[in-house]
Amino acid sequence: MTRRRFYPPATCEKCGNPPALGSTLWHNGAIWICPVCLADETPGEDMITKTVHVDVQSKKDRALSIRARSASRIEDAQYYERRSKWHADAARTLDHHSKDCLGSRLSMAGANGSSPEYFKDTLSDPDLASLESSAMRGNLLLNNDVVALGIDVSNTIGASNTLEKLLAHEIALAHKLAFKQAELAKNEDEATMAFKRLQIAAKMMDAAQKGMLTLQKLRNKGAQQMVVQHVHVTDGGRAVVGTVHTRGCGDEENQG
Description:
two-stranded antiparallel ribbon; mainly alpha; single chain; 7 helices
């Protein structure tokens, strides 16, 4: 990684424009660029995906730094640690830029204001496994193009641990696949293929709904609720236990 100059210039070295008020330039390894240029060169269709892309890379570099340090490769450890901070800084720049552009919070920050939602739990005091696991979850969201939806579902259910976050991401993916197959079925010329796509869509919807039920079971710790009703029968009264079926006038058999 190229060492950057300590002080950034007054204008972006790519587009020549100064950063917006309150923003700063970011060094991409070769030149200082503004948040707009950083967003343009970062993969992803939306700002949330772009932010996750660089933040996942930051977590990967941090894991590599831990591995290198454990193997006494100090120079490599320092190199990956610098890259980790470098990408984390890029994620903060993109996050800040998204707020400026939309006028609302599109932040990926968690409760501590520094880590994306799907990192905040296990990374409060991370070890190597939690770092690599978090990076893997981010990659899965990125590779399936379901970042924003997955995070929105996770935030909606208030996911508080890894299992709940995994379920939230699976529900989001099943939902996306269901609607994608339904859309393809609508434009399918062959009736047989259209029917198969609709079957897949129905199965994905069912999978999403089962995921919600699984979440409920996890939170209730598998406990079942039983309702006990007490019926008091006075003297001379009668009580029937079980389901009672009654017949209406239309159910009576005609007799000749």
